[in-house]
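In the lab's daily routine, each protein ends up as an entry in a very long ledger. A line of letters takes care of the sequence, but it says nothing directly about the fold. The three-dimensional part falls to structure tokens, numbers that each stand for a local backbone shape. The outcome of that step, for a single protein, is printed below.
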Amino acid sequence: MTTLLPNLRNCLPASAAAGRHFLQRQLPRAALFHSHHHAPPSPPFSTTASTILSSALTHVPEHGFTDMALTLGARDARYLDITTNLFPRGPFEIIYYHLVMSRLDLHQRVQFPSAEARELGVGQKIRTLVVERLRANEKVLGRWQEALGLMSLAGNIPTSITELAKLSDEIWYLVGDTSVDTAWYTKRASLSAVYASTELFMTQDTSPDFISTWKFLDRRLEDVQALGRATSEVGNYLDFTANAVMNILRSKSVIR
């Protein structure tokens, strides 16, 4: 992983507080209000790109998020190797495809019937959606630390954080949230922190059916009291999360 990420220490925030402030700057720009009165957005991929990238994903377990996986995806789709020039960000395009499609598929994979929706609280609905989104990583989980490393590179950080913000917004939308006040930011900032820390934890989880991950998720949801804390307390939570992320990366010898 150290050879994959030679410049990671220069790309990460200098401190947890810097990471928190970066996320706070990005969220308002990235997570545009998801209106209940508009149709869901279409995937930002052409038919050719979607065909190649979806095929490339199937090669990730063996080859990782690499140029080889991208090339094999093009070959599977019966395109020439040179077709991969359509993807200027290289293997990161595979990651981005996975992030976008997993987010857009959530509304099909998780639906709350009217009767069930009335019985489930907001917190339980959020937990259900987060678990389902994390399970979408299972097929590539053995390579997901590589993905997190590529997402941390300077040129990929804005897209990665934007997509995290969109995921947070999508989950709140599917829960039925229609707030447009200051709580809109608070809820999405909290959920982004919860999701990011749980996703990182999952890459190290060896428990049966990821039991430890779901327990970790439950603790994080409790930490922010079902995502309802004040913005200043959310900031403290983001500080904690940033510190945790950097400590894990140090333990993996990615940064020193």
